[in-house]
Amino acid sequence: FDFVIIVSAFVIGIMFLTGHGGVFLKNSRGGKQGQTYDEVRMEKASGIALIILGVLTVVDTFTTGLLAKSLYTVAVLVIFGILIYYIKTKCKK
User: Which run of H or E residues covers position 25?
Assistant: First the structure.
């Protein structure tokens, strides 16, 4: 299962960084969200977060122990927390 996360995180992260990952961020309701956030910045931030997540998952795959798994979980939560904070504060139009 880790390898699925690794491959998908890298592929989708690269798609975001090259500007082809907007399909993953589109609002299906067509509401205000697409108008109030800068989608290019959101793509770049999401791409960086996914690539970092992929690297962390690679490291986690080859480590064992409760401390390593706990640090991985905390790191993932911190990454997504920073991503949400960045989107809410820096990606507003």
Answer: none
Distance of CA 64 to the CA centre of its chain: 24
φ, ψ dihedrals at 27, nearest 5°: -85, 120
Task: Kindly report the pTM of this predicted structure.
Answer: 0.83
Cβ atoms 51, 14 nearer than 8 A: yes
- Give the whole-angstrom CA distance, residue 70 versus residue 49: 19
Tens-place pLDDT, residues 50-74: 999 999 999 999 998 999 999 999 9
| DSSP H or E run through 91 | none
| CA gap 74, 68 in Å, rounded | 10
Report the alpha-carbon angle 57-47-69, nearest 5. 20
CA distance 89 to 29: 22
